[in-house]
Design goal:
118 residues; mainly beta; five-stranded antiparallel sheet; 39% strand
């Protein structure tokens, strides 16, 4: 298992940016309705491993569906969902779901995402 590394990322237009310490050996590709339509490839981190560095949480638009336990946030200008937040289903702990496609310097073809039936 690889160690966590700090990555920078953000939305397409640059209005929002973040840093996240993540292990990209644990990436998922989910087939649920929101992940498939948005093309999300995700890794999950604790709140201590995530920091919004540009923009504020209040400026992001929010969308919730189904059980409304994940806050899907996106830039109101470019529409990109760079991350989401919520609680892990296994233990109820707070987490951030990072859209790996929004991380700088990541070679997506080198990743081996686990397929998840959401």
């Amino acid at each position: 298992m690889a160690e966590a590394k700090t990555y920078t990322g953000g939305c397409h237009c640059g209005r929002f940016a973040f840093e996240a310490s993540a292990d990209l050996d644990n990436v998922i590709s989910c087939n649920c309705s929101i992940c498939s339509k948005r093309g999300l490839m995700l890794t999950f981190v604790s709140p201590e491993q995530f920091k919004l560095t540009r923009g504020t949480r209040e400026e992001l638009k929010s969308y919730q569906f189904n059980k409304k336990v994940i806050d899907h946030v996106f830039c109101p200008d470019c529409g990109v969902e760079a991350f989401a937040s919520g609680k892990r289903p296994t233990d109820g702990q707070a987490m951030y779901a990072i859209n790996v496609r929004c991380l700088e310097g990541v070679e997506l073809t080198a990743l081996q995402p686990k397929l998840v039936d959401g």
